[in-house]
Design brief:
The chain is an alpha+beta fold and 324 residues long. It has two domains: 7-189, Ribosomal Protein S5, domain 2, CATH 3.30.230.10; 197-316, Alpha-Beta Plaits. It contains ten helices and eleven strands. The protein has helices spanning 100-112, 135-151, 155-165, 169-174, 209-216, 225-238, 243-246, 255-258, 263-274, 296-308; strands at 33-51, 57-78, 84-88, 117-124, 177-181, 186-189, 197-202, 251-252, 279-282, 289-293, 312-316. Helix 1 (100-112) packs across helix 3 (155-165) and helix 2 (135-151) packs antiparallel against helix 3 (155-165). The longest helix has 17 residues, at 135-151. The structure holds adenosine-5'-triphosphate (ATP). Adenosine-5'-triphosphate binds at residues 93, 98-101, 123, 129-137, 139, 168, 209, 284-285.
Amino acid sequence: MAIESSVFEKEVCSLMEVGKSESGGRHAAAYRQVILPAYAKINLFLDILSARDDGYHNIDGIMHAVTLCDYVSVSIGGFDGQQVFVECSDPSLPSGKGNLAYRAAELFMEQTGLTGYSVNIGIEKNIPVSAGLAGGSTDAAAVIRALGYIFDIDKNTLFKVAEKIGSDVAFCLMGGCARAEGTGNVLTPLSPMGKCFIVIGFKGKGVSTPEAYGKADGIYHPGRKEERHAELGRLSELITGSPSDYSGSLFNVFESVVLPEHDGASELKKILSECGAEAVLMSGSGPSVFGLFGNRDSAETAKRKLSGIGARTFIARPERTSLI
Ligand code: ATP
């Protein structure tokens, strides 16, 4: 699927009206096709507070959308025996139910009671997979958002669908910057990051999020909660300024379990610091790491160095738009 990048020049979502639906009724479709950027996220702060009985964990942290993105196209047609089709530019990803975008469309249809439509999804994958950047979650969120536009569905319903898919999907649906609590589904919007260049590097094998949580069990304890809480509060106040103002407050509980076993991520962190990053951290359960730079030249130098040792490297900007 080739998508013209010019379609995405605007920071806000682009809707492509290919033709009005002719079907009437409660859910008459306003658009036939919608193409959206699906932004990656980074975690500026991530702590685990407790394990839950349902197998999930209670977390506390700050997530931020960045301009690194996949492109997701969603179009609808008449029902012809299979309701959802996924075509993805990355052949290693599943095209059926295993794809989070597929599950998003299926759950959306179930939750809204829509029948009589097929949903065709195209994904142009740019975000590294199993990298701690919420690549799958953001594709799922883009599908929900696109179907929301197509069928004019209210926000609450969209968030209900998002929460059923995975803990990062609700944030990806919201975008911008937010404090994330609960399993990641309790979101409080925050003022977004100030201007900076975000160099993201990914090298070596991906990390399975459930496995990383398994390893992290036992390394967190309630005693540290207040100290962490204060740091998180400081970070949310300083985040609109220069990264050097808040670099000491960045935190990711997964660093202590993932970095010792992942030479690639540790190496990238070291290089980013040597290149003058004002702040460096691993994102999510890793192994992607990011460095925040105040100017483009040093960000470009860091990108070259990371690429030079075989890392997939991107320069992104904070994506501040609240999407919903
Ligand atoms: P998070 O930061 O939310 O924990 P991640 O960035 O570490 O996520 P993903 O890239 O979302 O990890 O991939 C996690 C798993 O989801 C992989 O096993 C992958 O095969 C599967 N997956 C399903 N659909 C997608 C998709 N559309 N894009 C990426 N991965 C997907």
